[in-house]
Fold:
Amino acid sequence: MSITAIKSLASTSKCEGMGELRRGPWTLEEDTLLVHCVACHGEGRWNLLARSAGLKRTGKSCRLRWLNYLKPDIKRGNLSLEEQLLILDLHSKWGNRWSRIAQHLPGRTDNEIKNYCRTRVQRQLKAEAHSALLREAVRSCWAQNFSSIPPPHMFDEMPPWASDELRGVTSFVDRFAISSGGGHCSVNNAYEVDPWNLAPTSVLTPTCFASEHTSCSNNDVTEHSSWSMDESSDMLKSYMSGAESEVPFGDDN
DNA sequence: AACCGAGTCAACCGCGGGTCC
DNA sequence: GGGACCCGCGGTTGACTCGGT
Structure:
């Protein structure tokens, strides 16, 4: 297709009246036109480039389209584990400096990394909400079965006065949370699948404890795919009685 | 088959910094 | 010095897809 033909297409497609700027998704014709113009004139001077190409787009829009989608060395597809770990690492160092992080991941754009992290953060927040749900459910379970022992803060930050017994239960809850994470994921294989799942509160299944029957399972307890509320409280009781080994899952760490 | 909610991702917006006149 | 313009960054939006019901 000649450049004239492309220009003609771009100027007539869905755009009435000269001077009106097009918005929304880019058409194939616009993409082709932009690629051609960048090949001729190079990157930069985006407003000028947009005008000279006859594109009814802002320079900004052209730049974004080129950098995030049309540039030849853009990588497509899922992020590899190495890339995910690198993002995790760099994000912990630099925070939301997406472009800076992107510089260390050849072929990945800041937009892509930003979207990736946002998705993870949302997932994390949800998981934390689920975690709160679990804590509340266990709290309620506790209230029914261990009413003689005050439960109020046992799943929050441990107060100085907390007994070793209470600390032990917190440990139990934490281990439960980790072990039940991601449906069928132990901590180890969750890490292999997705390093962001390493955060201890990020791996709860939503239905754990929240419904009448739990649906927790993990690699260590394949035989225990369904625990009732009673069974859960039994587990708490046996744990409290010092029979830690009876808790039906091992230490994933 | 239709609907709905969650997840994904391309694109837009606002702002700040740099440069040029 | 300051106004206009350009560029890049990070935040946000909205369309689309897909899986579950």
Observations:
- Residues 24-25, 44-48, 59-60, 63, 67, 96-99, 110, 114, 118 of chain A lie near DNA strand C (CB under 10 Å from a C1').
- Chain A is about 55% helix and 0% strand.
- The first helix of chain A runs from residue 3 to 12.
- Residues 1-18, 146-253 of chain A have pLDDT under 50 and may be disordered.
